[in-house]
Design a protein that fits this description.
This protein has helices spanning 2-33, 95-99, and strands at residues 41-46, 52-56, 64-65, 72-75, 80-83, 86-92. With 102 residues, it is of the alpha+beta class. The protein folds into 2 domains: 1-35; 41-99, no CATH class. The strands form 2 sheets. Strands 2-1-6 form a 3-stranded antiparallel sheet. Strand 3 (64-65) and strand 4 (72-75) form a beta hairpin. The radius of gyration is 24 Å and the shape is elongated.
Length: 102
């Protein structure tokens, strides 16, 4: 009788682990897919030296700086981190659209 209770408890615990893994998989992989994706490229202008630079949100930990080095932007998929005085000019999924702008 005691052995049967232990076996049932172990099976119950394994079933809970499987349920938690399924929920975790849904939250981590399937839920972010349902959201709209951020546009990949962004064009920024430094308000101190007036130079422009382009960031790519799919590059991980890529801090892009202006010519004077006083403004920098790390534009990732889920957040944007910046230093100095950068000003967002435009966003696009095609980098050539941003390069052709005057």
């Amino acid at each position: 009788m005691f052995q049967k209770k232990i076996t049932n408890y172990i099976l119950f615990q394994n079933n809970l682990k499987i349920k938690y893994l399924i929920i975790l998989f849904f939250l981590v992989y399937l839920l972010p897919m349902s959201e709209d994706k951020k546009e990949r490229y962004s064009k920024w202008m430094c308000e101190l030296c007036s130079s422009t630079f382009i960031t790519d949100c799919q590059s991980r930990w890529d801090m892009v700086s202006c010519d004077c080095g006083k403004s920098s932007v790390d534009d990732e998929e889920y957040y944007t981190r910046f230093f100095g005085n950068p000003k967002l000019i435009n966003k696009s999924n095609n980098i050539n659209d941003l390069k052709d702008e005057a």
